[in-house]
């Protein structure tokens, strides 16, 4: 194994970019795979999550592709939009000191913007199968000069039903190309694709069990189903992770759990397929930047997302697929760093837990739930919540909001009282006032009406302005009698 990128034959501009990105020496998969790719051989790479697979094909393509040639020369297919954006961002960092340009194409993104980027010219295109297929069918993506095809997370693409689209894309590409297939597992369909569309591929396999045993502390806690939220809250308070991903099996569970944690005052967000694309990308970026420390996610939405220095992974639900357990806990303990993975196990999950232990080849330790004394002593532990934060998280902001609401509500009530009082003074005279007015009319006669009023009650327009309407006294008496009897 070669212990430096320089020894692999990488050009100085790319080496400079890798150094700026924090790469010190190649990982095992990079040391084994990059020389074969630079030798223009087809490869099947079976490697664990977080082993540095993006740099395997990214560095190799940037090294071999000529930025002066027209049209895209590299195409990378990914199962999710988030992974496509992430890979494109990594490629931009790797190529910052070169003349290469890259772009990403994916669903729920502006088609016009993608077309303009392709017209301006790019060296490498990263995208989801559906959108890439659309661009090829509409002749927006020129394929005649493509020299590289990368199928990243190939097993997941097949699980998500992209097989037909992937085959259509492969058939539209030149035969004389380098094909790289990266996958955690190699099911039958992937084997069939490799035999049909790859040229005597070499298989490089890095065992995933080594990572899960050596660098990640794995613990499970037995818990009753109806107490999972309470136990999770206790664990977070005890662990106090700087960054933590919490995995659930369904979108509904993600939403409910995120709401529960939000009400408890945690800075957290949800990530699943029903959330709009632009919001998912923003959520991932905010999590990477540390704007919140808890991310509740499903397996599909989080597949392929790389988070540096993730301190804790919690399996709120035991994964339905044994391989998903490896993908989940592989988010922590990356690049040789230590990590922790906690799994909440109900009575119904014991059988699935034993299957996972058999799959990874090791026993998962049973933990003892922390007691209230461990994190309830405010004299020895700093508060976990940012009570001075401007964001509307936690009980502190909720209380303040409630006080403001009461003040506003009190002002509204006071205004209503004043309004009612003013209305009472403006109402018609009471019965006593009406009686006095009637008695005055009997003695002195009614007040003279204006000309317009006289006209309205039947008088002709030639009546003088000072002329009054004569009303019979019997009519006044009837009015007075009604007032007195009411």
From TrEMBL:
Residues 34-204 form the Helicase ATP-binding domain. Residues 388-407 are annotated as: Disordered. Residues 3-31 form the DEAD-box RNA helicase Q domain. It holds the Pfam family DEAD. One of its GO terms (molecular function) is RNA helicase activity. It comes from the Bacteria. InterPro entries: DEAD/DEAH_box_helicase_dom, DEAD/DEAH_RhlB, DEAD_box_RNA_helicase, Helicase_ATP-bd, Helicase_C-like, P-loop_NTPase, RNA-helicase_DEAD-box_CS, RNA_helicase_DEAD_Q_motif. GO terms for cellular component: cytosol. Residues 215-375 form the Helicase C-terminal domain. CDD domains: DEADc, SF2_C_DEAD. Keywords: ATP-binding, Helicase, Hydrolase, Nucleotide-binding. A motif (Q motif) lies at residues 3-31. Belongs to the DEAD box helicase family. This is DNA/RNA helicase, superfamily II. It comes from Acetivibrio clariflavus (strain DSM 19732 / NBRC 101661 / EBR45) (Clostridium clariflavum).
């Amino acid at each position: 194994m070669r212990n430096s990128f320089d020894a692999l034959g990488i050009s100085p501009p790319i080496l400079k970019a890798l150094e700026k990105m924090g790469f010190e020496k190649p990982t095992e998969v990079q040391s084994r795979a990059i020389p074969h790719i630079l030798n223009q051989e087809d490869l099947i790479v079976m490697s664990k999550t977080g082993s540095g697979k993006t740099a395997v094909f990214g560095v190799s393509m940037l090294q071999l592709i000529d930025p002066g040639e027209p049209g895209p020369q590299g195409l990378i297919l990914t199962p999710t939009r988030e992974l496509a954006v992430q890979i494109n961002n990594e490629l931009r960092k790797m190529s910052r000191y070169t003349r290469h340009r890259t772009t990403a194409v994916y669903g729920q993104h502006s088609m016009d913007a993608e077309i303009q980027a392709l017209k301006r010219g790019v060296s490498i295109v990263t995208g989801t199968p559906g959108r890439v297929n659309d661009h090829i069918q509409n002749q927006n993506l020129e394929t005649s000069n493509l020299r590289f095809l990368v199928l990243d997370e190939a097993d997941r693409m097949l699980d998500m039903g992209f097989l037909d689209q992937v085959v259509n894309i492969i058939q539209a590409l030149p035969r004389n190309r380098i094909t790289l297939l990266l996958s955690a597992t190699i099911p039958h369909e992937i084997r069939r694709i490799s035999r049909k569309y790859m040229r005597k591929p070499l298989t490089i396999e890095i065992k995933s069990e080594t990572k899960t045993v050596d660098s990640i502390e794995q613990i499970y806690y037995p818990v009753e189903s109806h107490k999972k939220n309470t136990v999770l809250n206790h664990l977070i308070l005890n662990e106090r992770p700087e960054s933590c991903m919490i995995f659930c099996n369904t979108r509904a569970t993600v939403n409910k759990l995120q709401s529960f944690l939000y009400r408890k005052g945690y800075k957290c967000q949800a990530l699943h397929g029903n959330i709009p694309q632009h919001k998912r990308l923003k959520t991932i970026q905010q999590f990477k930047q540390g704007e919140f420390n808890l991310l509740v996610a499903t397996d599909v939405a989080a597949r392929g997302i790389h988070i540096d220095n993730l301190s804790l992974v919690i399996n709120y639900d035991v994964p339905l697929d044994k391989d998903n357990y490896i993908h989940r806990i592989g988010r922590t303990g990356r690049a040789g760093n230590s990590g922790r993975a906690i799994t909440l196990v109900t009575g119904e999950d014991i059988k699935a837990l034993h299957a996972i232990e058999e799959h990874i080849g090791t026993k998962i330790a049973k933990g003892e739930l922390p007691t209230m004394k461990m994190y309830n002593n405010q004299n020895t532990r700093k508060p976990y919540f940012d009570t001075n934060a401007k964001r509307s998280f936690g009980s502190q902001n909720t209380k303040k909001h409630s006080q403001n609401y009461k003040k506003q509500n009190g002002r509204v009530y006071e205004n209503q009282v004043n309004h009612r009082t003013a209305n009472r003074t403006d109402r018609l005279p009471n019965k006593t006032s009406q009686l006095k007015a009637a008695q005055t009319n009997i003695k002195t006669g009614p007040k003279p009406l204006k000309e317009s009023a006289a006209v309205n009650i039947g008088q002709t327009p030639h009546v003088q302005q000072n002329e009054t309407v004569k009303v019979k006294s019997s009519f006044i008496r009837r009015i007075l009698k009604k007032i007195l009897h009411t």
